[in-house]
Amino acid sequence: MNDGLFYRFMCWYDAWWRRRHNVERFDELISFSFEKFSGERRIMNDGSWIEPGDALAILHFNRECFSGPAQTRDYMRNALRFRKLIIASLSQLAKDVNNHEKLLQVKAFHGVSWLPPHGEKFGFLIEQLPDSALTRIRKYYFRLLLKAFFPQVAERESKRIQPHAYWLTRNNLLKHFAMEHRHEPQPEQ
Q1: Strand ranges of the sheet holding 106-113, from the earlier edge strand across to the other edge
Q2: What is the pLDDT of residues 156-181, one digit of tens each?
């Protein structure tokens, strides 16, 4: 599959899209683009607010970290590898967030993913996207990405794809992923 015309086209398109949107690589798993929040003022799950004009870092996953010899057809092994990578990436981000010039301005991290909702216990606010033409286009696009880059996942997940918005505030990033807070007991709620 890695040498087919569809795969090569999707690689080209992915690289073109990332250049066009100024996506910057952070580590093996995560890249960012940056934009200003243009929605209505909204409260986040930690009590902070996102205001129009606030800086957002848009999260993008790097598909390359899932290709090559480490890739396996074992769904559970890949899921565990992804979990390990995302925790390591977010821990590194929490460590670097106050030292990276563009990240200093960021109020929240945001992304849209086909992944089933998970991560609330790590501070993520997760919202299912409403049924709309844009959501249907995203579902179709996610199916194309899976078919091109992760055919073994596409076989299993294609029918269940439902895009969700993931939000992680700067405060929740530090609370859940900064090393000085990782082993502190969390207050009971």
Answers
A1: 24-25, 30-36, 55-61, 106-113, 164-169, 125-128
A2: 776 778 899 999 999 999 999 997 65
| 170 contacts 107 by C-beta, under 8 angstroms | yes
Structure tokens at 99: 């030292």
What six digits make up the tokens of 107?
A: 């109020």
Instruction: Give pTM, 2 decimals.
Output: 0.83
Contact 168, 123 (CB under 8 A): yes
The full length of the chain comes to: 189
Over residues 27-70, the pLDDT tens digits come to: 999 999 999 999 999 999 999 999 999 999 999 988 776 665 44
Distance of CA 38 to the CA centre of its chain: 19
> For residues 166-176, b (16+ Cβ closer than 10 Å) or e, as one string?
bbbbbbbbbbb
Phi-psi region of 83 (alpha: psi -120 to 50; beta: other; left: phi over 0): alpha
| Closest residue by Cα to residue 103 from 168, 7, 14, 12 | 168
Angle at 169 between CA 168 and CA 170, to 5 degrees: 120
Query: What ranges make up the beta strands (E) of the chain?
Result: 24-25, 30-36, 42-43, 49-50, 55-61, 106-113, 125-128, 164-169
* Residue 109 CB-density burial (10 A; 0-12 exposed, 13-18 middle, 19+ buried): buried
